[in-house]
């Protein structure tokens, strides 16, 4: 007998990556691994591979609204995960959608650069996210280069970027791994002054979709009702394992193994 799905539903608004390493496929796989159901809404189409991004096209606002509203009218959304938005207009579109679900956890991954360094939105998109979207988010998960763009501090440390950004967002997770340090330091900041540091072993190589994986796993843990600091720890541990077990199917970066072999 068929039974109603008891898995929490996470609404994902992000771009499509045809290589399958990042974007909505990363969201879906990471959420499946948390025991959640992903409801993917496409915000943009990209031309990219495991090496870098060549081009992208942001979808029409009405199409994105129609996708998301179809989900909201049918499914009990327990969390929202944001990835690539690509334009200021898409930032405003998400702000409008957020007003329909003001109380569910919202994880904002401010995707502004691909893993290979290519732009996935102008810096003005980041500033619009900072001013209009971060105040509506539960937590933002930029890596250090993205945090520097958002904070307008080109050489800022994680602490300096957090000081600049916390007036905009309640919680901020700035991920490390972009330097040559032996250990990776991921730092969680709270507007209330709380701070937590999570350290993990640095892995060799570079990875395509690690930020999407982390933010989606975190959204899933919050949808399951896990407390924020514990959810961050769970998501970081899961993401590290996906990078440890990553594979290199193409000519560029490694792709995280988000699902076990017997699920592939």
UniProtKB/TrEMBL annotation:
Enzyme Commission identifier(s): 2.7.1.49
Instruction: Name the UniProt key words of this record, in alphabetical order.
Output: Kinase, Transferase
Indicate the enzyme's highest-level EC class: transferase
Q: What InterPro entries does its record include?
A: HMP/HMP-P_kinase_dom, PM/HMP-P_kinase-1, Ribokinase-like
Domain Pyridoxamine kinase/Phosphomethylpyrimidine kinase, by residue range, is 17-253
| UniProt-recorded Gene Ontology molecular function terms | kinase activity
Its UniProt pathway annotation is: Cofactor biosynthesis; thiamine diphosphate biosynthesis
Could you name the domain of life of the organism this protein comes from? Bacteria
Q: What is this protein called?
A: hydroxymethylpyrimidine kinase
């Amino acid at each position: 007998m068929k039974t109603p799905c008891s898995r929490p539903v996470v609404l994902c608004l992000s771009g499509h990556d045809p290589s399958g390493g990042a974007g909505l496929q990363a969201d879906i796989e990471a959420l499946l691994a948390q025991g959640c159901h992903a409801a993917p809404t496409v915000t943009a189409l990209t031309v990219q591979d495991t090496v870098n991004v060549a081009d992208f096209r942001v979808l029409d606002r009405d199409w994105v609204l129609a996708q998301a509203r179809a989900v909201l009218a049918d499914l009990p959304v327990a969390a929202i995960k944001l990835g690539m938005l690509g334009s200021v207009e898409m930032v405003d579109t998400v702000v409008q959608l957020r007003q329909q679900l003001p109380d569910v956890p919202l994880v904002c991954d401010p995707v502004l650069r691909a893993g290979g360094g290519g732009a996935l939105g102008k810096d003005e998109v980041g500033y619009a996210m900072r001013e209009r979207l971060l105040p509506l988010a539960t937590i933002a998960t930029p890596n250090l280069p993205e945090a520097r763009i958002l904070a307008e501090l080109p050489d800022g440390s994680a602490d300096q970027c957090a000081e600049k950004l916390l007036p905009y967002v309640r919680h901020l997770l700035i991920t490390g791994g972009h330097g040559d340090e032996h250990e990776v330091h991921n730092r969680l900041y709270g507007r209330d002054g709380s701070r937590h540091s999570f350290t993990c072993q640095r892995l060799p190589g570079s990875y395509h979709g690690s930020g999407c994986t982390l933010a989606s796993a975190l959204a899933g843990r919050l949808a399951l009702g896990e407390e924020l600091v514990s959810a961050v720890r769970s998501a970081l541990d899961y993401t590290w394992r996906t990078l440890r077990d990553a594979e290199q199917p193409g000519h560029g970066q490694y792709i995280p193994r988000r699902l076990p072999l017997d699920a592939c």
